[in-house]
Amino acid sequence: MYAGEGRENARGYREEAFLSLGAPLEHAVFMRQVHGSHIEQVGTGDGGRGAVAVETALAETDGLVSDASGIALLTQVADCAPVILMDGEAGAFGVLHSGWRGTAKRIAVKGVDIMRSSFGSRAKDISVWIGPAACGKCFEVGEDVFASFEKNDLDAGLLNREGKYFLDVRAIVAGQLKRSGVPEKNIAVSAHCTMEEGNRFFSYRREGECAGRMAVGVWKA
Ligand SMILES: [Zn+2]
Questions:
Q1: Which residues touch 89 (CB under 8 Å, ≥6 apart)?
Q2: How far, in Å, is the centroid of ligand 1 from the Cα of 162?
Q3: Mean pLDDT of the chain
Q4: Is the CB of residue 184 less than 8 Å from the CB of residue 50?
Q5: Ligand 1: distance of its center to the CA of 79 in Å?
Q6: Model confidence over 141-181: pLDDT tens digits?
Q7: Above 70 in pLDDT, residue 5?
Q8: In the predicted model, what is the mean pLDDT of residues 71-82?
Q9: d(CA 115, CA 87)
Q10: Sorting pLDDT into bands at 50, 70 and 90, what band is 18?
Q11: Which 3-state string (H, E, C) describes the chain?
């Protein structure tokens, strides 16, 4: 899906993508993401927010959770990691936007916590998918970036190669989730890199401000 230069186009692409998945766009819930760690619980009445007019999307929100059937929770990403949480036991699910800032703020752990408190989820029942993102070979960062992480978190994802630092955001997210009780076997990590695979993905680092965004979503039938 595309949301960069042409907002008019974005609607067409979104409708097409949703039709091909058999889910109507009116049931999608979008966020106005700010690289924060605020997560909102949404329900059936939120279906359609941000689907057509960006103004109606959930403001200053980088994560959504729900246990409602028939709504789709969406995040839009380019290089940042999309994270999907699913708990078949509690019937709950969520989507998170986890770039380096959200990852430093431990948004994935907050996602698990809110599923626990809102839906009675147990970490051991939660399955996670961490989608295509900038990989640890490509995502070069400065000291200012990794200084904002807790040391524990960096162990899994800060790589020093020839005096340059690279961050593997997905490895950090996976490590955080494991330490919060999600079994390793329940965590699937995409091998795709948005910075390397230009024919397949949009990349903010590669294409700049006008890069498109991929929408990644989850819903309960
Ligand atoms: Zn890469």
A1: 121, 122, 125
A2: 17
A3: 87
A4: no
A5: 10
A6: 998 898 889 888 888 888 888 889 999 999 999 999 999 99
A7: no
A8: 91
A9: 9
A10: low
A11: CCCCCCHHHHHHHHHHHHHHHCCCHHHEECEECCCCCCEEECCHHHCCCCCCCHHHCEECCCEEEECCCCCEEEEEECCCEEEEEEECCCCEEEEEEECHHHHHCCHHHHHHHHHHHHHCCCHHHEEEEECCECCCCCCEECHHHHCCCCHHHHHHHEEEECCEEEECHHHHHHHHHHHCCCCHHHEEECCCECCCCCCCCCCHHHHHHHCCCEEEEEECC
Q: How far is the CA of 50 from the centre of ligand 1 (A)?
A: 30
User: Taking 80 as the threshold, does the pLDDT of residue 13 lie above it?
Assistant: no
According to the model, what pLDDT value does residue 217 have? 84
From ligand 1's centre to the CA of 124, what distance in Å? 30
Domains and CATH numbers, the chain: 7-133+188-215 (3.60.140.10)
The rounded Å distance from CA 194 to ligand 1 centre is 7
pLDDT at 147: 87
Contacts (Cβ under 8 Å, ≥6 apart) of 151 = none
Beta bridge partners of 220: none
Centre of ligand 1 from the C-alpha of residue 83, in Å: 18
Report the separation in Å between the CA atom of 191 and the middle of ligand 1, taken as the mean of its atom positions: 9
Q: What is the pTM of this model?
A: 0.88
